[in-house]
Amino acid sequence: MEVKTSSADSPFSFRSKTTKASKASPSQPIDQAAQSGGGPSNPLLKTDNLKASPAEFLRLHTAARQTLGQMTEYVSKVLRRQHRTHFFVVFVLRGRARIVRWDRAGAIISTPINFAQDSRLLHEFIWRYACMNEAQRGYDPTVVLATEEEIAAMRDCAAPNDWADRYRNGAIGQPGWPIYKITMRNEDLIDERLLQPIADDIDPSECQSEPYEGTPTFVVGKAYFASDSMAGRGTRCFIAYEVARNRLVFLKDYWRPRVDMILAEGATLKKLRTSGVQYVPTPVASGDVYSGGMTPQTSETQSLLSKDERTGRDHVALIHNRLVVKEIGRPLADHEDALQLVGALFYALLAHSQAWLLAQILHRDISELNIIIWCYTTINGQTLTIGLLIDWDLAKLAKYLDAISRPGRSGTWPFMSARLLRYPNKKHEVADDIESAIHLLQWMCFRFYEHN
C-alpha cells in the first residue's frame, strides 16, 4: 500500500515530497490532499440516487479540477505500465476518505468515510482488501512476470526487420516497465492455412508458420504505443516475443465495446483474409481475455452511470481483448521518399476497396497510425515495399452502417470527412473514408515536404 502527501503549493499531487512514485508497482495507493479546498468532490452525496448526474457530485473550481486531473493522470500511468482490469485508490482529505474503483469505463466513488469520528469502515475496507486475491485487487491473472530465460530468448530472437529490432531492444530493460509474459487460450489461435495470401506474388515460404506446441504465450516489455486516456479502449501495442515459435510478432491489447454490430478486430481480420482481401495483417491469435471462468474480463462502472443524455441509451460495457498479428511494419511517418508514401497509401486503399467489395466491411478510421509500411519477398526473390491497412477495431459490416452503435463519432479527428464533422449523426460511407485518405496524404505532404 502506498501513501502520498501533496505539497503545500498544490491542492493535490501524487508525487511524494521525498520520492517519486513508481507507476509499475503500486497495488492500492492512499492519496492525501493537503489543502481543505482541493478535493474533487462535494462533501456530501445523495445516497438515494446512485445514478445522479456527475455534475451534481463534482466540484468545478480550479483546485478541485486540478486534483481530479492529477488523480486521473496517475491512474492512467499505472494502467499504461501494469496489466490491470481495475484499480483501487483511497483519497484522504481532512479526516475523510473516499474509496475509488477505476476501470476503463470510468470510476466508482464511495460516499465520504469520516474516519476521524469512526474509523471502523476504513479499517474494514483495508482488511477486506488485504484478504483479496490478486485478481480481485485488479491484477490480470493471465499476465505474470517473465523469467530471465524468457527475457534472454526475446533479446536473442532474430528480428524480421531493422525497425522491429530497434523497438524490441527499446522494450527491454526500460526503468518502470517490467517484462511480462501474457498467456492466451488455445482456442484463440488462428490457423494460417485458412487465410488467403497477403499478396499474390509473395513467396509461399513467408506464408507458412511452424505448427503450434503448447499454450500460446507472448513476452512483452515497454509498450510501443499506449493510450494516454484512462477511460475508453485503453489501447496498448507491443513488439512481442512468441515463445512457441521463437519469433517477434505484434500484440495489441485493448478494451472493445460490447456491441453486437461491431466485431472484435481479430474476427474482422480473419473474415477479411478468408474472403480474399489482401494488404491487411495476418492474424495469429485473437480473443477476449478470461480470468478462468466463463465470462470475459468486463468493465463495471458503466452499470452505475446514468443514460446518455443525447441517445437515451445505457453506456456500453467494455470487454478486454487481445490480438496478435504476424507482420511488424514501419509507421507511415518513417517513409523514405514521396514515392514510398504514395505507394503505401495506394496499397492501403486497395485493401479498403477489397474489404468493401469482397467482405462488405468498411474500415471507418483512415489515419496516419493506421497504415504501416511493410516489405516482403516475392516468388522471384525480389523485395517489395507496400502499405498495410491496420487497426480494424472500428470497422463495421455494411448491414450495420445505418445503426448508431454507441454515442460519438468514429474516426481520427484530423482526418475525418467534413460531412461527418458537421453532421455527427450522419451515416459513415465509403466516400468518407476516401476523403480521409485525401486529408491524410495532404497532411503528410505538408508535414514532410516543402510547400507554399
From TrEMBL:
Native organism is Fomitopsis schrenkii
Pfam families membership: Pkinase_fungal
Q: Where is the Fungal-type protein kinase domain?
A: 63-149, 215-445
Give TM segment ranges. Answer: none
Question: Could you tell me what this protein is called?
Answer: Fungal-type protein kinase domain-containing protein
Record's compositionally biased regions (Polar residues): 1-15, 26-35
Region spans: Disordered: 1-46
